[in-house]
Structures are given as structure tokens and as C-alpha cells.
Amino acid sequence: MTAAVVAAYEHPYTRHAAAGTTTEHVLTAAFHGVLREAGLRPDDVDGLGVASFTLVPDHAIDLAWRLGLRLRWLMEDPHGGASALNLLQHAVRAVEAGDARTVVLLAGDHLDRAAFRELVANYNRATAETLTPLGISGPNALFAMLTQRHMLATGLTEEDYALVPISQRWWAGRNPGAVYRAPLGLDEYLAAPVVAAPLRRYDCVPVVTGADAVVVTAAARGARAEVRAFGASHNHDGQQGDGLHTGHHLIADRLWADAALGPAEVGLACVYDDYPVMALAQLQDLGLAPDPGRLLHERLAVDHWPLNPSGGQLSAGQAGAAAGLHGLVEAVQQLLGRAGERQAAARHALVTGYGMVLHRYGACANAAILEGKR
Would you say 111 and 320 are in contact if contact means Cβ atoms under 8 Å apart? Predict the structure, then answer.
């Protein structure tokens, strides 16, 4: 039995959610939204996967109960930017094994100021015991240092890194769901306040409220996205490396071999873009940017190659744990031909996950290559 993603949905992201909004509310809205896209009813769903930082004290089973679901397969993943592809891997395997027939994967959060402060201060024990006492509030300072290290290793300048958010903002202007859509130029980028040198405002993801969802089911006729290959590497260096290589560099060769494709054959990439440097590091590790300068100045700035054509997190927003599912939703919408004005001509898409900052940088990395069939 072949599993495929047949629908994707994003509950609208917002910077300032209405009073009374809850995480359960946005996850529920995404659940019903993706079922409408798939032409399914809740009774058709026998599998559920959930990722959320702020659903607590509830868990996946609580949400399933409130949705009125009776399930054969249930999973919850707490691993931030890597959670969505972890869930996808297990959901595909479950459908192929016959453990479930139709699985909905959900991810999302409502993060007001208080919830966000609590999250960044107590993200995990390493954060609470090691970073927060130093006055490091959130990951900006850590990734500013990593960006400095990347600059020294590659020779890239601040003006070069600017081309990631500028390019993605160009695409966001074609995405009515992006929270920031106005064109972004180099002068405006450089004039923005410095958050942690060399990072400026436009290098850091805006925190939003929202949720995403996909449906994985036994392959049916019609438009669908099938997973050609999947790979993951977690805790690849025990936080002892320099952070310039993610775990993706360990899975790249097998990923492409399993997909029977090369990096040049991928028509679009949705990579986890919490910071421009991390988008570039993943693309380098996976063979899509052997020359990062050429990628930035030619493929992105001139050719408008579709890197994160939703606008990515840098323009569409980061809705907590939904950030890991946002790229998959965009890739599926593209491969199903449902991306509207930003539709790219691509049959294959690369999606990556990256996350769970420990002492210095993300410890989890995964990637999937999807093929669209219509």
C-alpha cells in the first residue's frame, strides 16, 4: 500500500490574535480546514499526529477526544522544527503497514507575550540551567555567533545574507497568507535595528499564532504528493562541532540515492529558515549550494528560484511548532498545483526540518524529497 499526502492547509497566521484565542482553537481550525481540502469527514480519520509547545497540559489524546476522534494510530512529537517530518515519516510508515488508513498531522501554537517568554526561558533543561542565567533570552544571540562563524568560513557579508529574506519577501508578496508581504529592499534591510550583531530585524522570524495540517492516506487517484526519500540525523555531533554543518550533511548522499535524483533536479526547496544562515547551511549540506554566493546573487536574486516560496518563516511567520510543518504544507500545495500566484513549475520538492536548540544550536535534522503526481 502506497501512502501519499493528498491535502495541506494553513490556518491563517496572525501577529496579534483575537482575545480568547487558544492553541486548541487554531489546531481545531486547521484540522477541519484540511479535511475540507481533502473532501473527508472526521469519521474518515483513524490516525492523528500532533506537535505543539502550548497545548499543555493537554496532549494529543486530549485533542483527539475534543475533536471526537476514535483512532488506531496516535503520535505526539515535541522536537520543534524537526517534529513535522518526524511525524510524516511515522505516518507514512503507519499507512504503508496498514496500522492506519487516513492520518491527519497537526502543528501549531498560540504564543502571547507571556507564553513566548516562558517558552524561551525554559525551552529545555540546557536552556533553563545554562543559557537563561547568562541573560540569553531566546536563540538570537546563539545564531548571531553562528552567523559570524559562517561569515568567516565562507567570506559572505551582511549584504549577501540579506538576499535570503529579500528573496523570500518577493515570494511572500504572492502569498496572501504571509504576515509580511511588502517588498523588502537592501537599504531597508540594512537600516533595520540590529538584534544581535550581525543579525538585524529581518533575519529573525516574527512570532505568530497559527496552525498547519496535512492528510496522509493510502494513495488514491488524483493529485497527491508521494515521499520519494526521507532521512534524519539527530544529535550528530553532541553539540561539540562548530554548528556550520547540520546533521543534513550525514544524510545527503543516501537521501539523493533513495530518491534516484540529484540536487539539480529538485524544482523547489522549503528549508527551515529560522535565520538566513541556517537556510544556507542546510542547502550547502544537501548539495544545493556548493557555491553559496552564486545561489544568492544569481539563483535567488535574478532567477527567483523558489526557495521557501511561501515567504518562509522570515516573512510568513513562525507559529511555534507549526514552523516545522509550514514548509511541508507549502511544498504539498506547490506539488498539487494549488499555490495560486506563487505557483512554481516543479515536480519534485525538498523539505527540511531543523530544530531543538540545546547548548549552542539545533540537534535535530531531517529532510524529505516529495514527488507530485496529478
Answer: yes
